[in-house]
Amino acid sequence: MLTIPRTEREFSQLGEFFDLIGPERARRLHDAAAEIAKRLDGGTLWHVNSTAAGGGVAEMLHILLPLYRSLGVKVGWLVVGGDGRFFEVTKRLGTALYGSPGDGGPLGPAERRAYLDVLSANAGEMRELLGRRDVLLLHDHQTAGLVEILGGEVSAAYWRCHVGVDEAGPASDAAWDFLAPFLSGARGLVFSVPWHVPRRLSDHRVEVVPPFVSPFSAKNRDLDEEAVRTCLVHCGLAASAAGPPASGPLRVLRHPVRLVAEGTPSPGEPSLVQVSRWDRLKDMDGVLTAFAAHVDKGYLTLAGPDPLGIPDDVEQGAWFDRCLTAWRALPAATRRRVGLLCLPMADLEENALLVNALQRSADVVLQKSLAEGFGLTVTEAMWKSRVVVASAVGGIREQITHGENGLLVNDPADLTGFGTLLARVAEGEVDTGGMGTRARLKVLRDFLPDREVIGTARLLGD
User: Fold this and answer.
1) Kindly report the CA angle at 304 between 303 and 307, in degrees rounded to 5?
2) Do 453 and 65 form a contact (C-beta atoms < 8 A)?
């Protein structure tokens, strides 16, 4: 049931990273790592979550653990497993934490038993690995129960919440009714943005540590124009050009991409891209509706994971089908300016490279979420110096200052306001160059991995 993901042993770009952040930040990073190692006193800092691949937490841990090791900190990563009933409950919890009732099912005593039974089984396996000096850093609602189960058997247990809702409601209250009792023994709590901390946890020690991206990952590293074009050709969004086959990092482009389209972007035509899950909260069909009603110039690509590659998440298939139905109902001329792209999931590096290229090819990247924990797709696009047009929800508000380094619509349900912003960018009314430069500088300053290590040192420094 419990698994130990494999990660790179070392952060191979450490020297490049130090050059990027400069000597003062590099010194602070070394000092923070030394503080963590001293606090552990020979123990291990264990990160625990519920998946080794897919999703922002797993992506960050694949970056963070090699960085810690390169800095002399002993770390480990454990992934809890579960049965269908466990993940039914945690899916319901996650949806509720975003303020949505989801499937409308209960979060009562029976669900609590199913949840704790699975975590207790995982804890039995974890005890074979844990020592008294070890520290647990537990991620999200799938692991919160381990504070109660294992907190007294290690040096300290901390819990980190990556999701949340801007305004509490019945659904989120029900989720916190379920989770809060497990957290009484946590040494500290971590949230991505301050306004996601529920009032009932205000007496706990809380640190705010935003997520981060790596400049050197497949999703964010520099790609030249030829590499971007090769990826677009693979996606069916550009015509093939004569030349040698892809090599280097692009040799992984071997899995087919599913594109639903009747046209492709014309040279010089503004390109608008949203990369998200096919999910109600990402509102891909809302983006489609706003574009069709208000944007007369440009080509829109809605890209997400291929639902056929994730058969255990039927909701993604349903929301993709909803977008497909809306696309088919568009007038022919508008339909030719919209593509629905399903990215392969069989190779995560390939998937990441395609996302990288799609964002770099865009004149504007969209993120019209109805709710967000933080929104790493926004961070990724900003790192690539792209203007992002997004909803002012969750951690997106922490990243984008409207008119300074991106554009925000205050009401995520305001399709007219969102479409009007898109039209302004497509018509060239926005200084995309200056705004994109400021966006990249924001990520460089606030959302790179050294901030995570420094925040963790602060958290453990009690």
Assistant:
1) 135
2) no
Residue 17 vs residues 14, 215, 221, 448: alpha-carbon distances, Å = 5, 8, 12, 10
H or E element at residue 351: helix 348-361
For residue 408, the cross-strand partners are 390
Residue with tokens 């050294």: 450
pLDDT for residue 242: 52
Asked if 53 and 347 count as a contact pair (C-beta separation under 8 A), the reply is no
The answer to whether the CB of 300 falls within 8 A of the CB of 288 is yes
H or E element at residue 77: strand 75-79
Which residues make beta-bridge pairs with 389? 366, 407
pTM of the full structure? 0.94
Query: Distance between CA 27 and CA 246 in Å, rounded?
Result: 40
| Cα separation, 281 vs 283, whole angstroms | 5
The H or E element containing residue 139 is strand 135-139
366 sits in which H/E element: strand 364-367
Residues of the chain with pLDDT under 70: 241-252, 311-314
Give every strand in the sheet of 188-191, ordered side by side: 75-79, 45-49, 135-139, 156-161, 188-191, 206-208
> 347, 305 in Cβ contact below 8 A?
no
Q: Quote the pLDDT of residue 102.
A: 85
CA distances from 247 to 87, 231, 252, 421 (A): 40, 12, 8, 39
Q: What is the pLDDT of residue 241?
A: 63
